[in-house]
């Protein structure tokens, strides 16, 4: 598995109301295949997740993936670490599904013909073969999230950071997308409110008020989170 290191990495930003700490300096080494991040809205989960591929730069400390500094070697890190958003529409920009996957592959495969074949194979793998030539807008929410994930996974990254990938989905699609994510060979960092999914991971981080307040075995971490919320 890739080695993700947060070395006293924190994020502070200036806001009109003064300086604000989005994530306190945090030291973590993530080597497990499936790491879940849980916590309340606004606790700092996305800030933590976004630091792992340089979408947010740490303002203190450093984040490294396999020795690459996320701030200074951002392009190399982003080839290793894919990121998927809660709302797949943020990621789907082309008129048809196959074109969207082709767009992801543009740097990976120079030949347009081979790129199309690769994109079709990717759609097939995610059960979207018959959607190749239809508009992204005609897909259901679940299919759209699958397509967005197919796009970021098409280039075979080493790590997938998924920020609440099932939050907008119904139960059946949550199950389907969850099974896909947890079955990946790649390392997965999964921000989620779905505690059943979190329990299926190898390690769970609980974020509260810009801090990682619990870190460990899924059952114990989820129980600690539930206890802190439900009292
Ligand atoms: N760039 C920013 N500037 C100011 N505040 C921000 C910024 N990004 C996030 N926040 C705020 O910081 C807090 C933590 O954000 P975030 O990491 O998105 O939390 P979560 O993903 O757990 O909901 C939230 O209150 C959010 O509104
Ligand atoms: Mg978030």
UniProtKB/TrEMBL annotation:
<keyword id="KW-0378">Hydrolase</keyword>
<keyword id="KW-0813">Transport</keyword>
<dbReference type="GO" id="GO:0005524">
    <property type="term" value="F:ATP binding"/>
</dbReference>
<dbReference type="GO" id="GO:0016887">
    <property type="term" value="F:ATP hydrolysis activity"/>
</dbReference>
<dbReference type="Pfam" id="PF00005">
    <property type="entry name" value="ABC_tran"/>
</dbReference>
<protein>
    <submittedName>
        <fullName>Biotin transport system ATP-binding protein</fullName>
        <ecNumber>3.6.3.-</ecNumber>
    </submittedName>
</protein>
<dbReference type="InterPro" id="IPR017871">
    <property type="entry name" value="ABC_transporter-like_CS"/>
</dbReference>
<dbReference type="GO" id="GO:0042626">
    <property type="term" value="F:ATPase-coupled transmembrane transporter activity"/>
</dbReference>
<dbReference type="InterPro" id="IPR003439">
    <property type="entry name" value="ABC_transporter-like_ATP-bd"/>
</dbReference>
<dbReference type="InterPro" id="IPR015856">
    <property type="entry name" value="ABC_transpr_CbiO/EcfA_su"/>
</dbReference>
<keyword id="KW-0067">ATP-binding</keyword>
<feature type="domain" description="ABC transporter">
    <location>
        <begin position="6"/>
        <end position="231"/>
    </location>
</feature>
<dbReference type="InterPro" id="IPR027417">
    <property type="entry name" value="P-loop_NTPase"/>
</dbReference>
<dbReference type="InterPro" id="IPR003593">
    <property type="entry name" value="AAA+_ATPase"/>
</dbReference>
<dbReference type="GO" id="GO:0043190">
    <property type="term" value="C:ATP-binding cassette (ABC) transporter complex"/>
</dbReference>
<comment type="similarity">
    <text>Belongs to the ABC transporter superfamily.</text>
</comment>
<dbReference type="InterPro" id="IPR050095">
    <property type="entry name" value="ECF_ABC_transporter_ATP-bd"/>
</dbReference>
<keyword id="KW-0547">Nucleotide-binding</keyword>
